[in-house]
Amino acid sequence: MFKDQITPLERLTAYNKNEAVDRLPCIPSVGNGAARVIGAKISQFRNNGALIAKAQVESYKLFQYDVVRIFTDLYVQAEAMGAKVMYPLDETAHLESPAIKDIADIGRLQPPNPYKDGQLPEFLSAMKIALDEVGREVGVIGSVTCPFTTASFLIGTEQLTKLMLRDPQAAHKLCEIALDANLQWAQAILDTGCGVTLSDPVASSTLISPKQFREFAFPYLKRLISYINSRGKSATLHICGKTNKIWEDMVETGAACLSLDNVIDMAAAKERVGAKVRLTGNVDPSAIMLQGSVADVKQAVIDCVAKTFDSPKGYIVASGCSLPTEVPFENIHAMMNTVREIGYPVTQDKLTMLRHK
């Protein structure tokens, strides 16, 4: 059995400097699956920062991946601004209704206070607990749902889509309010000592056109990432689904790393933007990690590494999106163990040998 030789912080620090490491960094994006590690229900995370921290810390200890992400769902900022969120007993939360139904109500929207409003204080508490417990060996990050996606949760995705066409000024106003909320939330996260990861799923080219992305998502993303960079931190940007038509725009936001979904051709991404930004992701969270066998996981990881390990700015092995909560633990172990077996430096000969082992 292959074992890690250094801590995640040591690994990422060395990898960032192009120094020797024991293996490629690997982040399975366990998410709410961490509840199962401690025998909890996902709904118990609501307003319980201590339990969120316990689940994520214990999940990290079990699998030994390279970043601890304090995350349950995409809605915590929008909920703190008035959106209604449904919390099933043991499934990830979903949006029940947006904060406002009509643009005439936009005046009611105010950026939430991260230290007082909604569940935000509990998430900050979870970050601090995780930092105290494992922050000396592994990076701990908080999650920010980006301006365009947050705006969609404030008024509804369908309504926002209509506004972009019929009343673009109003759509920009919503995005500006969402950005203000994001900036305050990012500041609070950074003030704990944690890093930041960014999710903007509604900005996907699967949902809006590249032209709409450049007008309504890009400017606000760029300002958010500029702030994060001004604090001496870098950000990973995840946009779900098809993004190949906006890769260069994603790079121009200032993100240090692009997290790409499993529908993306990583070889093409490496060719087009790999010299400008680090790449991560692409292992299928559903067909492979949830429904596949240990052998399927091993093959998928090898395939992703083979395509991307020599990307000029580097590659972090990861799932293409957050893992479904029921992913078998043995598949997460298989992902980590495959990366350990591949080792570093990576060679095509080693990958070929492992394919047939």
UniProtKB/TrEMBL annotation:
Write down the CDD domains for this protein, in alphabetical order.
URO-D_like
Stored InterPro entries: Methanogen_methyltrans (IPR052024), UROD/MetE-like_sf (IPR038071), Uroporphyrinogen_deCOase (IPR000257)
Q: Which GO terms describe its molecular function?
A: uroporphyrinogen decarboxylase activity
Q: Which organism is it from?
A: Methylomusa anaerophila
Q: What is its EC number?
A: 4.1.1.37
- What domain of life does the UniProt record list for this protein's source? Bacteria
Q: Which GO terms describe its biological process?
A: porphyrin-containing compound biosynthetic process
Endpoints of the signal sequence: none
- Please state every residue range assigned to the domain named Uroporphyrinogen decarboxylase (URO-D): 8-341
Q: Which key words tag this protein in UniProt? A: Lyase
> Which EC class does it fall in?
lyase
* Name this polypeptide is given: Uroporphyrinogen decarboxylase
**Among its keywords, does the record have Lyase?**
yes
